[in-house]
Amino acid sequence: MTVAVSGGVCGAGQATADSAGATLRYTCTLSSFPGQAMTAQLAWDAPATVLVGQAAPTVTVTATATVGPTVTWALGLVGAATVAGSVDAPGVVAAPEGNIGAAVRMIVPRTAVPASGPMAVHAAGTTPGLVFHQPGHATVTVGNDLALHFSPRDAGGNPTVTGEVDLSCTLDPGQNAVVFSFTITPAPVAAPPVGPATSPARSPTGTGTRETATLSSSGSSLSATDSTAPSTSVSGSAQSTATAAATPTAERAKIGDLAATSAAFLAAGAGVAACVWWLMRRRRRHVSGR
């Protein structure tokens, strides 16, 4: 039952788990009662790897503790028909960051007491989780002592004359107390976020962004556009046009010229209309004179 500690500590990690087990021998003592041998067979599913910084998932640990016929005889002597209780199992995890103490409580369901012979008691518990902060190799070692708490009851479900019974069990010497080992791996490094694309900076010389103004051939609209292009040398009227297009003052001059030209066209049109009107009037007078 003490391997509950190892299963509990190794509950942290990836979803893939390894089935493991151990068999340990203890000597249990009770006041005014000679020491009795107990064998604990343990089983659990625990991951072989653990990620740094992640909380441990829970792992179920099962155990079967077997005691000799002397215990069965003593329980029958006090009128016990069933027993139930719990087991407190300590342990230590040796991790790169240091030793971490851990303990697991396992529950013993109500179990019938046989008439004679050895008695087997089953127990199960859910392990707590630990968080490791440094990668490396780690081992789980069971404690030398564990405490058993039992409540013997008669056939009617009433407590026996002994009441609650507490037993202290000690790990027999000469056994390997390391019951499990696992690897603590570094957490995966997240890729840096990809930021938005930045627009090219304006170049003071060589290549840059210039603004150009275009006057339509009909003289009815004026539009401005931005274009990025390398500075090149032009000659003649093309250079004059580019320079005037890039200068706000030249743009205003073009607009002024357009307005003056429009006014001249309007004045000429008015003069032509006046001449037509005068000729028509003169013709009517000439006809009237006849």
Automatic annotation (TrEMBL):
**Region described as Disordered:** 190-250
- InterPro entries on file: DUF6801 (IPR046542)
Amino acid composition bias (Polar residues), ranges on this chain: 202-211
Q: Give the compositionally biased regions (Low complexity).
A: 212-250
Name the source's superkingdom: Bacteria
Residues forming the DUF6801 domain are: 25-177
Name listed for the protein in its UniProt record: DUF6801 domain-containing protein
